[in-house]
Design a protein that fits this description.
alpha/beta; binds S-adenosylmethionine; globular; five-stranded mixed β-sheet; 11 helices; Rossmann fold
Length: 261
């Protein structure tokens, strides 16, 4: 299996240290070279954009990495935990550098499951997001199908049985539990509600069963041609009724409550 994985690994990043910011720079090049994968991202950004609350205050993306949300969502400020030339700010999700109740929305695409202390992030976010503001995320999700894929084919750790939300501190990309959003917002939902009355869970929409897998993501060399995107998108729409079993991701919407915290 490891020989196959090595052969499928994208040559631009094969064998390199994931936590090296230069690898994120190379991943941006990989993303730009995969029009199909860019469409997957666009479909995520479109769902985020539709859920943005109206009104004032900045919309800040956390952990922008190789992504291009700032091109798709007007006014979005990109940020990353380490310096990257194409990103607006350096910001750590666990120590957000924004004034109290100043932020309209925080956007995280594929980032929450890399946070070694998600409770600390939810607290830090509750301090800087204004009442009525939101956290909008797209995250790996646990279903029968995704469990098979994440356990057997993906390089990041996946542990839906983890006793705690956090995991030992590692690098920003090597540290992960891909089951984390599902653990916090589904398995441990009662605990989340008890610990975080500042946040109201407005939506969890499982999505993207096949397209990201087919695209090879940012680390594998294969990807379908861009013209095939509408076919796969329509196939995913046709599979809507089985999304609870097939989804590999979920869109998650949290709203800052007005009266708590
Ligand atoms: C899988 S990548 C996703 C990058 C990008 N959002 C995308 O969709 O391609 C996870 C990102 O989370 C970032 N990250 C990890 N820990 C972080 C932290 N404490 N604060 C902010 N970003 C963090 C990583 O540096 C990395 O860029």
């Amino acid at each position: 299996m490891s020989l196959v994985k090595t052969m499928l690994a994208h040559p631009a990043t094969r064998g390199r240290d994931l936590d090296d910011p230069a690898v994120t720079g190379a991943r941006r090049g990989i993303l730009e070279s995969k029009p199909f994968l860019m469409e997957v991202y666009r479909s995520w950004y479109a769902q985020v954009a539709r859920a943005l609350p109206a009104g004032d205050g900045p919309v800040v993306e956390i952990g922008s990495g190789a992504g291009f949300a700032a091109r798709e969502i007007p006014g979005l400020i990109s940020s990353e935990v380490f310096f990257l030339p194409h990103v607006d700010l350096v910001a750590d999700a666990l120590a957000l550098p924004f004034a109290r109740s100043s932020v309209r929305a925080l956007v995280l695409v594929d980032v929450f499951h890399h946070l070694p202390d998600p409770a600390r992030f939810l607290e830090a976010a509750a301090a800087c997001v204004r009442p009525g503001g939101k956290i909008l995320m797209v995250e790996p999700w646990v279903t029968g199908f995704s469990s098979l894929v994440y356990k057997n084919l993906h390089h990041e750790p996946f542990d839906p049985t983890a006793a705690t939300w956090g995991f030992g501190k590692k690098g920003p990309l090597s540290g992960a539990n891909q089951a984390l959003a599902w653990i916090v917002f589904s398995r441990d939902l009662a605990l989340f509600r008890e610990r975080f009355p500042q946040w109201s869970l407005k939506a969890v929409q499982p999505r993207t069963p096949f397209a990201y897998l087919l695209s090879g993501g940012l680390s594998l060399r294969f990807c379908p041609p861009g013209w095939s995107w509408p076919l796969v998108r329509d196939l995913e729409r046709a599979a809507a009724r089985w999304m609870g079993r097939l989804a590999m991701f979920a869109f998650i919407e949290l709203e800052r409550t007005r009266d708590a915290g």
